[in-house]
């Protein structure tokens, strides 16, 4: 179920790199600027159709080249499924799954669940609610088939509602009332799926993945929708109507929900040290992958950029214990491979080291 062969062409400083990762832990090490993060970025791009570093695709295409290509073979039972994505300077994207052109990145995303941990992952706590909704919905996207189409329908409706608001209607008229019935119905469905998923998430997180972490004593994970039921959301839409018209957007609904992580009534970002926050990020992402793997039989991928930064040896061991609990194919970057030996100790997985230098793999 893992990625077995990855080829990256004209992607940042990776002119033409091919490697065969193992179904276990893949360490990508090398000097600053050698191309380690670019390699993770390429794997991420293959699943998400976008970079985690920039929205400007032209900065990704190698200088003086027209098109980048990322290609991989994904094992599904006995089958080796070729998947690929390319993008050129004109902005044309081509996705291919088993030789057939696909128009939907969601198809690739569904096939290859890729999660990422970087030094910027603190955004889960310090960033806005959007980051936390994205985290929750990533899990739902993979385990709840119905969720994606529901989310697309909701977003279409939200756009229509906002367009209506921008026409500055004078009162809460029939047409809006009509749209709002559907808006409330979809909101309710999304909320129910999120809450059910979060219940499952909490039980896996507290009872299994993070059960031995002293860090999580008194940790609370809460979903705040901003309303409790159909009647309350309907009422809030009416009450906030004048304000919504002024703003030109809808202020209540699942697009405004948030997750909070707190300890003793303090948000973790105001309470935990950076090392503790990082450990919590690992625990949350491993939980997510564990659930995806348990419920879909798909193997997920965990990309970890610069693992050793800000983590003491003991915390690295804790990270190793956490990582040992999921079956994900793992890619870890480090400047020196020795810096992560404490992480690797508790993991009884196949291990392979890849040394990157000036955008190329060095066989040592
Ligand atoms: N479009 C591009 N074309 C060619 N080279 C690029 C392009 N974009 C970035 N680079 C170069 O790619 C190199 C690899 O960067 P990358 O971030 O992958 O390095 P890294 O090994 O992760 O380094 P660090 O350990 O410092 O994080 C950098 O030297 C960067 O200048």
From TrEMBL:
Keywords: ATP-binding, Cytoplasm, DNA damage, DNA repair, DNA replication, DNA-binding, Hydrolase, Nucleotide-binding, SOS response. ATP binds at residues 30-37. It is found in: Cytoplasm. Residues 3-343 form the RecF/RecN/SMC N-terminal domain. GO terms for cellular component: cytoplasm. PROSITE patterns: RECF_1. GO terms for molecular function: ATP binding; hydrolase activity; single-stranded DNA binding. SUPFAM superfamilies: P-loop containing nucleoside triphosphate hydrolases (SSF52540). It comes from the Bacteria. It holds the Pfam family SMC_N. One of its GO terms (biological process) is DNA replication. Belongs to the RecF family. The RecF protein is involved in DNA metabolism; it is required for DNA replication and normal SOS inducibility. RecF binds preferentially to single-stranded, linear DNA. It also seems to bind ATP. This is DNA replication and repair protein RecF. It comes from Pseudoalteromonas tunicata D2. The gene is recF.
């Amino acid at each position: 179920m893992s990625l077995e062969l990855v080829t990256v062409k004209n992607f940042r400083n990776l002119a033409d790199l091919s490697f065969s990762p193992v179904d276990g832990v893949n360490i990508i090490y090398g000097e600053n600027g050698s191309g380690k993060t670019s390699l993770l970025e390429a794997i991420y791009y293959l699943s998400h159709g976008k970079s985690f570093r920039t929205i400007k695709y032209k900065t990704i295409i190698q200088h003086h080249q027209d098109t980048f290509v990322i290609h991989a073979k994904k094992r599904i039972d006995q089958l080796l499924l070729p998947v690929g994505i390319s993008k050129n300077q004109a902005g044309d994207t081509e996705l291919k799954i088993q030789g057939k052109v696909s128009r939907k990145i969601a198809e690739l995303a569904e096939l290859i669940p890729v999660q990422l941990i970087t030094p910027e992952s603190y955004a889960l706590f310090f960033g806005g609610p959007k980051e936390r909704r994205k985290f929750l919905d990533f899990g739902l996207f993979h385990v709840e088939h119905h969720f994606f189409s529901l989310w697309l329908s909701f977003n279409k409706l939200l756009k229509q509602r906002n367009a209506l608001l921008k026409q500055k209607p004078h009162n809460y008229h029939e047409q809006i009332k009509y749209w709002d019935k559907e808006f409330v119905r979809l909101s309710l469905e999304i909320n129910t799926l999120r809450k059910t998923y979060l219940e499952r998430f909490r039980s896996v997180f507290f009872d299994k993945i993070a059960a031995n972490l002293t860090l999580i004593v008194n940790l609370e994970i809460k979903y705040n929708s901003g309303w409790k039921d159909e009647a309350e959301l309907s009422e809030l839409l009416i009450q906030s109507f004048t304000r919504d018209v002024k703003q030109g957007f809808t202020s209540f609904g699942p697009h405004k929900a948030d997750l909070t992580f707190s300890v003793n009534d303090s948000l973790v970002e105001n309470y935990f040290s950076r090392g503790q926050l990082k450990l919590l990020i690992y625990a949350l992402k491993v939980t997510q992958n564990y659930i995806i793997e348990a419920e879909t039989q798909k193997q997920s991928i965990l990309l970890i950029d610069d693992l050793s930064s800000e983590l003491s040896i003991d915390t690295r061991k804790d990270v190793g214990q956490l990582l040992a609990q999921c079956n994900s194919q793992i890619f870890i970057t480090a400047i020196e491979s020795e810096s992560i030996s404490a992480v690797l100790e508790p993991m009884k997985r196949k291990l392979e080291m890849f040394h990157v230098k000036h955008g190329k793999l060095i066989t040592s």
